[in-house]
């Protein structure tokens, strides 16, 4: 059984981050070892201001040292929401000094062309150091533009997208999937970067929005890759599962803030 170290935040209510990724990866046959970076009472959309507790940096450091003392190894390290520069530096130290498993990084810091309210250029600069350590980078278009320094445009394709990819590759990106690259009428896109080449794909958009979709995409993608799928195969499996979850939610009554009913569809991943 493959084993993943999952470094991400933990939301009690709302189905996001670890609470989406752990059940998906588990049903796909991956042993998930969660190492939280931040604890939240809910996710940050629709529940009012959540109670938030950043996990002290020494906990993460000492946990990693404990793993090393006990010769605990992982087939994959997934790096998600880190939240502050010291946490980025701690994870970077792990990736530089520990064993070299397959490293996946989702550089969570912004959307719609802007940083999330608690981030700025200093956080971006810290994340840039992770690019060369990750085997697979999973930014949305905003995050890809911020990391690369290329000005953001909604639904970028063509020269703008290639400029982003070229710059990220120069900065150390090996492979990547950039989501939100080509948004037309009822279309949603992603760009798969592999071997220095960029392939763009668009799919029919499900006309429903929800929190936690990125975490579900990341989980299915990572699980599929660990089970032997190609990057393209894994990307489309992840897209199809998220689309199915959105369609299921769109057909139900319920508040958007409650997240997607992915539990009902986990059988599709077995």
TrEMBL record:
Any single Gene Ontology cellular-component annotation: cytosol
UniProt entry tagged with the keyword Nucleotide-binding: yes
TM region positions: none
Any single biological process term in GO: pyridoxal 5'-phosphate salvage
Stretches assigned to the Pyridoxamine kinase/Phosphomethylpyrimidine kinase domain: 50-249
Molecular-function GO terms, alphabetical: ATP binding; pyridoxal kinase activity
Signal peptide: none
Alphabetically ordered keywords of this record: ATP-binding, Kinase, Nucleotide-binding, Transferase
E.C. no: 2.7.1.35
Coiled coil: none
InterPro entries: PM/HMP-P_kinase-1, PyrdxlKinase, Ribokinase-like
Official protein name in the record: pyridoxal kinase
Organism for this UniProt entry: Sellimonas intestinalis
